[in-house]
Amino acid sequence: MAEKRKKIGNLSVHPLCLGGNVFGWTADETESFAVLDAYTEAGGNFIDTADVYSAWVPGNSGGESETVLGDWFATRGNRADVVLATKVGGGVPKRRGLTADAIKTGVEESLRRLRTDYIDLYYTHWDDTSVPVSEFITALDDLVREGKVREIAASNITAERLAEALAFSDAERLAKYVAIQPPYNLVSRGTYEGALSATAARHGLAAVPYYGLASGFLTGKYRPGTTVDSERSEKAAEYLRTERGPRVLEALDKVAGAHGAEPATVALAWLAAQPTVAATIASARNTGQLPALLAAADLQLTVDEVDMLTEASA
């Protein structure tokens, strides 16, 4: 499995990053533990969560996913075997934004829930333009120096602010972003391609896209006239009402048929073939959804297949 690993800063990660947004939401602790066990047994070592998961559920306050992960680490004794990514600044009640105080309070609470003394990859979840980059980069650098964080990264940030943050890190010789986590998939390419991807490439940043399966649409289970029992079905079904959506599904079906693969596997393989992408994030509510996701690490698309999918998604 080692030959599949990709580099993000000094971290060595599996190319399929397991999304933790479902833990404590659509997957209870038992289901979450089963998915986590199956993922790591298959060679996976990269898990993504956030302090805000899943504050959108009535009765939740955020941190539920981190708590599930912390309990799993404690029962399995495998914290050192996992590259753990979490985030700060995503809107947890009473702790919004990227002020130095918000970051320092946020990391302590995440460490407590995760039952660990360090985070491998710590993202600023959403940019906070009311805070200068000097403040949040300095706060993140403090965490790295204290050994609480190994590498830092940015999610949901513009190319301009990303460049500004990187320039400040260089000028002051402080911790520097090594990765970016944008929404990016076959039916949402403008969310990363262009100025943002060019900035990442210019500075040698790794991309770890989220929404890689477009809320499940690119699994192929959403078709005209079908009804899917899922928390995300309404969002995924929106893609059917565009010209691009059905066109992409047709191309996915063709490539998947040629490889005897699932559409989800092909969609993630296309994403993995894009410049700067080091790993793709996908979540699984149960172990039955995992094989198609993990298979993307082994599926090598031809140049013609990548081009066909790219053209269909234009």
From TrEMBL:
Source domain of life: Bacteria
Pfam families for the chain: Aldo_ket_red
Chain ranges of the NADP-dependent oxidoreductase domain: 15-312
InterPro entries the UniProt entry points to: AKR (IPR020471), AKR_Detox_Biosynth (IPR050523), NAD(P)_OxRdtase_dom_sf (IPR036812), NADP_OxRdtase_dom (IPR023210)
SUPFAM superfamilies linked: NAD(P)-linked oxidoreductase (SSF51430)
Protein known as: Alcohol dehydrogenase
